[in-house]
Structure to design on (145 residues):
């Protein structure tokens, strides 16, 4: 009778955000009501339907020129430097994966920041550069100190 998609929709209360054409239908059926607990602070839309993250991602990707920038920064960190990787032309999910892979590669701690840059503890520029060059086609530019 009903497809798996309909069943999933009634379970989760929203349509896959990648299927933009079905969004108006979803609203008309009012299925948001089952999953409206948390609203996005920016657009007041239920988080399941919020587009803010996709918009931020699109803007970030549009700003990337294809060159990845690598820097070592100690400013305001009490001498404990971090290696920053900026302008990575990857979607959010892929950035998360890349961040955890780089942490393993470098054997150090690190984090992915909201603006899309990755920070790894210590001066890991050489190992990051070598690893990225063997796995991705992007030119890498060292910036700053
Ligand atoms: Zn939002």
């Amino acid at each position: 009778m009903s497809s798996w998609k309909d069943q999933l929709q009634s379970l989760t209360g929203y349509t896959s955000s990648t299927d933009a054409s079905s969004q108006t239908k979803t609203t008309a059926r009012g299925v948001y009501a089952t999953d409206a607990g948390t609203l996005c602070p920016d657009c007041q839309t239920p988080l399941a339907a919020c587009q803010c993250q996709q918009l931020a991602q699109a803007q970030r990707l549009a700003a990337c020129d294809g060159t990845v920038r690598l820097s070592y920064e100690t400013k305001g960190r009490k001498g404990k430097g971090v290696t920053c990787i900026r302008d990575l032309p990857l979607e959010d999910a892929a950035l998360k994966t890349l961040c955890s892979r780089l942490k393993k590669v470098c054997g150090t701690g690190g984090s992915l920041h909201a603006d899309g840059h990755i920070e790894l503890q210590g001066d890991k520029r050489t190992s990051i550069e070598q690893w990225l060059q063997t796995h991705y086609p992007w030119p890498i530019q060292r910036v700053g100190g």
Summary: The first strand starts at residue 68 and ends at 73.
